[in-house]
Amino acid sequence: MRDLPHDPYADAIDKALTAAGLGAHEIRTSRWDEYEDDGCLTPSLVISWEPEDLPKPTVYPHGLCLYWTVRTGWGHMAMNDRGFGDNPDTLPLPVWAHPDDITAAVRNLAAGAAPADTDREWTGPDAEACRTATDAVWHDGCDTENEGGA
Fold first, then answer.
1. How many of the other CB atoms lie within 10 Å of CB of 59?
2. Could you tell me the end-to-end alpha-carbon distance of the chain, in angstroms, rounded to an integer?
3. pLDDT in tens, 60-70
């Protein structure tokens, strides 16, 4: 059982992906973004698919990875034959993108198409509670004055 403030967001995304037949190989949440070294707690999420998890045909022979931080939003990269991501790129989604829009982006990416640009966000009571709790962790002891904030 996970216990991070952004776990409800990961769960909502997992539910949408699974309902669309795009269940991920792995969904992992973390308290920090391993690629930042400023000591700031930056809630993050990684979602990965093995090639056999993706709709056929796919342009990702070694798999696909989506990544998210509350600081930078959504990105994606192809997995290489060693299990690491190559050529990261941003996705045209808001930081708190609606799970159905993330699902649509995965379907488009797997087919080699560009994801649709959208500004629809995840909403509702669960979303508001999750965002508030996640923002509290992110801002706790962190200088976000020049970040653009969540």
1. 12
2. 26
3. 999 999 999 88
Q: The tokens of 51 are what?
A: 């090639």
Rounded-to-integer distance, Cα 95 and Cα 17, Å: 18
With vertex at residue 42, the alpha carbon angle to CA 19 and CA 50, rounded to the nearest 5 degrees, is 40
pLDDT in tens, 117-139: 999 999 988 999 999 998 887 76
Which sequence spans correspond to the domains of the chain? Answer: 7-139
| 3-class DSSP state of 13 | helix
State the virtual CA torsion across 129, 130, 133, 139 in degrees, nearest 10. -130
Who has greater pLDDT, 78 or 84?
Answer: 78
Q: What is d(CA 102, CA 142) in angstroms, rounded to the nearest whole number?
A: 28
